[in-house]
Every structure is written in structure tokens, then in C-alpha cells.
Amino acid sequence: MDLPLEYFIKLRNLIYERTGINYEENKIYYIKKRLQQRMQACEIDDVEQYIKHLKLFDRGGKEFQELINLLTVNETYFFREFSQLQVFAESCLDEVVNAKKSGGANTLKVLCAGCSTGEEAYTLAIILREMIDDYKRWNLLVKAIDIDENVLARARRGIYDKRSVKDVPESYLNRYFKKPVPGEYHVVPEIKEMVLFEHVNLMDRRALRAEDGYDFVFCRNVLIYFDDVSRKQVVDKFYGVLNRGGFIFLGHAESLSRMSTSFKIKRIQDHIVYQK
User: Domains of the chain: which residue ranges?
Assistant: First the structure.
């Protein structure tokens, strides 16, 4: 199958308009391989016809969603970027919990954006359970969102292989996972109950509009797929859902400096975190 630059640009622009994800021209081969799979599934031989199908005949956006499911990268595992999680667990979480206790509050909410197959969301739930001594008197929620419906279905199952749990401390592995068969690790119900998975397109005007009261936002290695305009729109939404004093965590290669001046920058150990 051939993908002329003209049609790559048309498809790239359509994806950007609907999702905010921006693919440069050096991604043409990456797009082509996945586009070919979806065209075969739709029994469409012509790229122009496929694009027309997405624009005019894809009622409800089902086929567009299938394409996005193929294009989004979902490389993740439990306790990824452990040193940053330590900063969250030992410094930022402690600060927020103590402030809430002083004010008589007992609800704590975390937003996990770009949650993929759920490893990060469940990791955050485990950390909340471990680090908040009187967790039973707290209302704890991790809201996990992603644009890919396939990975969300896997996340809700909460079943993982050995590679996904390779960095889980042994004590946590024994406490928070069941191993009914060799090579399978099932997240225990009490952790699964703390996490709510939802399909959300961050570039949808309605996305997160009804959300507020979050104490932490994790959006690690997600904004790298957006251009500057889309990044700013997403970060503004995150600012809107955060409580005063709440924190946002980004990936190591990401920075808010060009997107927003609304957050206080804090250096904790070797990590940069942003506080509202």
C-alpha cells in the first residue's frame, strides 16, 4: 500500500483536529503500517476513500477509535520511574494529607491521564494504601483515563504478566496480587475498587468539564504526543481540576515552562514537580 504525502497530511490533520495528537512527517511509515491494518479490516483499498469514510460515514466514530487504538503507544509497567514515585509518596502526598487533616477533610483524589493498561493507576492506588496510615477513614479515588478503549478494557481486568510486575517490591507483590496460575498476576479487589477507568479524549471540549477536586494529576509521557497549542489546552484543563496546593507530575522529558506560568515549580531531590 502506498501512502502519498498529500494523504498522510490529510489524515494527520484529521487526527490532530480530533485528538490533539500531532504526527510529524518522519512518522509516515509508522502511520502507514497501522493504517494498512484498518483499511484491510474495512475492506477499503484506497487511502482517499478511507479518509472520506472517516469523515463522512463513520457514525459514532467507531472506526476512527479503532485507528487511534492502533496508533497510541502503550509501553508501561508497575512502579515505572520509581524515584519520581518516591517523591510523590514521601514528600508531596505527605504534604497534602497533612493539610487535609488540618482542615478536617478526608477525601483524596488522583487523576491518572493516559493510563494505558492500568499499571500506573494501580501503582498509585497501592501507594495511597501503603503511605496513608489511617487509610480506612479516607475516601480515596484514582480516576484513570485514556483515549484507547482496548487498553482500558485490559486495565479493568487487572490481570498482568511477569514483565509488568518486574519492578514491584516483593512485599507488595505478595500483598496486592493474586497468582492463580503461573505467569499471571491479578490485582486484588481492594486495590481495583480504588480505581475508576474512563474513556476520555483530552481534546474533547467536554473532557474533564465536570471534574474538580483533584489533589494530584499524573500525566507522564503523554504530552510529548501533542503540539504546543494542544499541550497548553490540556494543561489548562489540569489546572482547572486541581485543588489549590495540588501537584501535577510529568515525564522526565516534559516541562510546563512553555505551557503555563500558573504553577509553582518545586525541586524535590532530583525531580521537578509543579504545584497549584
Answer: 5-71, 82-158+187-275
Do 5-71 and 82-158+187-275 agree at the fold level? no
In angstroms, the CA 115 to CA 125 distance is 13
Q: In which region does residue 140 sit, left (phi positive, over 0), alpha (psi from -120 to 50) or beta (all else)?
A: beta
Q: What is the pLDDT of residue 10?
A: 93
Strand duo 214-219 + 195-199: pairing: unpaired
Report the distance separating Cα 227 and Cα 16, nearest Å.
9
pLDDT of residue 145: 97
Q: Which residues of 119-150 are buried (b: 16+ CB within 10 A; e: fewer)?
A: bbbbbbbbbbbeebeeeeebebbbbbbbbbeb
User: What is the four-CA torsion angle of 251, 255, 256, 257, rounded to 10 degrees?
Assistant: 170
CATH number for the segment(s) 5-71: 1.10.155.10
The pLDDT assigned to 247 comes to 97
Lowest mean pLDDT segment, chosen from 42-51, 62-71, 168-177: 62-71
CATH superfamily of 82-158+187-275: Vaccinia Virus protein VP39 (3.40.50.150)
Contacts of 116 (CB under 8 A, 6+ apart): 74, 75, 76, 146, 148, 151, 155
pLDDT of residue 190: 97
DSSP 184: -
Q: What angle do CA 80, 156, 165 make, to 5 degrees?
A: 30
